[in-house]
Amino acid sequence: MTLDHIAVLGAGAWGTALANVAARGGARVSLWARDPAAVTTMAVSRESRGLPGFRIDDRVIPTSRIAEALAADAVLLAVPAQALRSVAALAAAVRAGTPVVACAKGIERGTRKFMTEVIAECLPQAVPAILSGPGFAEDVARGLPTAATLAAHDEAVAQALARAVSSPTFRPYHSTDVRGVEIGGAAKNVLAIAAGIVAGRGLGASAAAALVTRGFAELFRFGRAFGARPETLTGLSGLGDVILTCSSAQSRNFSYGVALGRGDPAQAGHALAEGIFTAPVLIEMAKEKGIDMPIAAAVADILAGRASVDAASETLLTRPFRAEG
User: Fold this and answer.
1) DSSP readout, 256-321?
2) Residue 105 catalytic?
3) Which residue in 105, 113, 188, 287 is the catalytic one?
4) Tens-digit pLDDT profile for residues 249-283
5) Pick from 296, 305, 289: which is nearest to 188 by CA?
C-alpha cells in the first residue's frame, strides 16, 4: 500500500503537528480547516492558530476544500472525540478502501461508541484505524522523540500507515488490537483527572503513586472485559499514556483535575478535557459488565456534582480491605 498523499482534517495543535510529521516523512499533505479565512492565514504565515510559534512545513498545503483533502491516500481525523462524528460526516465522499485514522482519545457520548466505530458507521466504505499513545502536540512539533501506536484490523494497513505517519523523531508502532488502543486512550483521560485532583489537593507523591497504580488496574480490568490484549494495555497506548498524562501539566485532563482539587475548575479550560465526557460513559459500560472501577466512579461523581472532592477521597480511603489485584 502506497500512501503518498495524506490528508489531516483539523488544523488544531495535534492536527498541525501530525501534518508536519507526515510531511517530514516525505508525504504530500493536505491540512484541512473549515474556516477559509483561517486557511488563507495559514497559507501566508505558514503558522496555525492551534500551534503558534511553529512553522508549517512547506510540503503541507492548507485547504478549506474538503474534496481536495479527500483525494488523499489516507485521512487523519485530528479533532476532539465528541466532534469526530460531525467531521467524519463531511468526509462522506472518501474513496472506498481509504484508511481513515481517528487521532482522538475518547468514547462518544450517547452512543457509547469508540472512535473507529463512529468512523465505520459514518464511512462504511473506509478502513477505520486509530492513532494513540503518549505524546503532546508541542513535543511532536519541536521534534522531540515520541512514540505512539497505530492500529488497524488489517496488519498490512497498520504497517503502511505507521510508515506514512512517521518521521525521524516520531515513531508509531503498528498493531491490530484496535479496541485495546482505543480503550487505553479513552480511560487514561479519566485517570489523569483523578491524578490532577490528588496533585491539586497536595496529597503527596505517595498518594499519587497509589492512585495511578490502582487506576491502571481499573483500566486493565475494563480493557480485558472488552477484548483488549494485555500487551496493548501495558504498552504505549495504555500504560505509556497513563504515565505521561497523569504526571504532566501539559495534559488538559491533568490540569483540569488540579483545578478541581484546588476548588477552581474554571481555571482549567475544561471544554478541551476529554475525560469529562468519557467518565460517565466509562462507568455506564463498566457497570453493565460488572467491572469494579472505584477511582473512575469517584471522578464521575465529582464531575456530576454527586460528591465533593473530599467526600470522594474519603470513600476511596475507606473501601473494604481486600487482596491486591
Assistant:
1) HHHHHHTT-GGGG-GGG-THHHHHHHHHHHHHHTT---HHHHHHHHHHHTSS-HHHHHHHHHTPPP
2) no
3) 188
4) 999 999 999 999 998 876 655 557 999 999 999 99
5) 296
